[in-house]
Write a structure and sequence with these properties.
Helix content: 40-55%
Radius of gyration: 29 Å
Order of helices and strands: HHHHEEEEEHHHHHHHHHH
Distance between the termini: 45 Å
CATH topology of the largest domain: MetI-like fold
Number of strands: 5
Strand content: 5-15%
Number of helices: 14
Number of domains: 2
CATH class of the largest domain: Mainly Alpha
Structural class: alpha+beta
CATH superfamily of the largest domain: MetI-like
Largest sheet: 3 strands, antiparallel
Length: 384
């Protein structure tokens, strides 16, 4: 070829003091902290954001349980035992009425001994919102009777039906959320304290401390979890108050769940303790506790948060399973596991399938935590 290749390299002198100016968008990205980059990456995970929003709504709702519940916890409808769910309707005979339910006509079938409820089109019961109903004490301090939704005066509203004592299942599910959701948080706090303390000491000091921690973890891991939970729960005295049983159960769940986290912390600290910044902090006279807390743990705190969100659903499921087996929380404490005790009778479930509705919030919560934890785990490494 006769034509020479065009030269695109700059022939000007290189100036090492000259810096390339960054655009505002580039500067915003390069100067962002790790937590901000995690947030940007998490926002792109739509399922995780949706799951996190659901979890926030559920945990905020437990602050206003009494307000959101249609009826108070001890309220019983003796005339509506095993009543089916009442569907919300808006139109009656072609006319817009607003949100309402149809009243139920009761009949006892003497052949099958089954309670039969039939919606009566002539009993139109309009629902009320931000209304006065059963009295309660908000946060145990303020006596109130305001509810988000109430039945018509003299009417009923069973969104998910009633149980064998005529108690509204929807209201009991809302009350049970307060116990079932907080069990996971308190249990994971205990588990994290033990996991970070034991795993951090094993990873930083090594030697006999590491051997002692590893052997303890192996002993706990060799015992099947469900029999261990059942044995510890059965050891709690029967004369304990429901509140004491609640705290005892959360401590048991926290004591059993820490080995996995301790091993993760140990393996990470074994690699980080050889880094230059850790050596520099030690040479400057920092104590081991300060080196672990201020220099080592913050380097993978995002991964610990992701691990926490993935561990909470296992504790919720454990509480549900133990309460379902009669070894966890007991009435008058109300949790999702206690509500599912009603579903132990398969014959009753076959006739009254709405007794299984308390399992729905358990499924939603566990899936939401898993999706949110998966998104946090991906966002924990924003450079990946």
């Amino acid at each position: 070829m006769s034509d020479k290749l065009r030269h695109y390299v700059s022939t000007s002198m290189f100036n090492p003091n000259e810096t390339q100016e960054l655009t505002p968008e580039q500067e915003r990205f390069y100067m962002a902290s790790q937590w901000k980059m995690m947030w940007w990456r998490l926002k792109r995970h739509r399922i995780a954001v949706l799951s996190g929003s659901i979890l926030v709504l559920m945990y905020v709702s437990i602050l206003f349980t009494e307000f959101l519940a249609t009826y108070s916890l001890p309220h019983r409808h003796t005339d509506h035992i095993f009543a089916p769910p009442q569907s919300v309707q808006f139109f009656n005979k072609g006319q817009f009425v607003g949100p309402f339910v149809l009243g139920l006509d009761y009949n006892l079938n003497l052949k099958t001994l089954r309670r039969e409820y039939t919606p009566n089109p002539d009993k139109v019961q309009k629902l009320r919102f931000i209304c006065h109903g059963d009295t309660y004490k908000l946060w145990g301090l303020y006596e109130m009777d305001l509810h988000f939704i109430c039945p018509a005066p003299g009417g009923t509203f069973f969104f998910l039906g009633t149980d064998r004592l005529g108690r509204d299942i929807w209201s009991r599910i809302i009350y049970g959320a307060r116990i079932s959701l907080t069990v996971g948080l308190i249990g994971i706090a205990i588990s994290f304290f033990l996991g970070l303390t034991i795993g951090g000491a094993a990873g930083f000091f090594g030697g006999w401390v590491d051997n002692l921690a590893q052997r303890s973890i192996e002993i706990l891991r060799s015992i099947p979890e469900l029999p261990l939970w059942m044995g510890l729960s059965a050891a709690m005295p029967e004369d304990w108050s429901p509140l004491t049983v609640f705290f005892g159960l959360t401590i048991i769940l926290g004591l059993v769940d820490w080995p996995g986290l301790a091993r993760a912390v140990r393996s990470k600290l074994l690699s980080l303790r050889e880094e230059d910044f850790c050596t520099a902090a030690t040479l400057m006279g920092a104590k081991p506790r300060r080196v672990i807390a201020r220099h080592l743990l913050p380097n993978f705190m995002s991964h610990l948060i992701a691990s926490a969100t993935l561990s909470i659903p296992s504790m919720i499921l454990a509480e549900t399973a133990l309460s379902f087996l009669g070894l966890g929380l007991r009435p008058p404490v109300t949790s999702w596991g206690v509500l599912l005790v009603e579903a132990q009778n398969f014959q009753a479930v076959a006739v009254y399938p709405w007794l299984l509705f308390p399992a729905i919030p358990v499924i939603i919560t566990v899936l939401a935590f898993n999706f949110f934890g998966d998104g946090l785990r991906d966002a924990a490494d924003p450079y990946k």
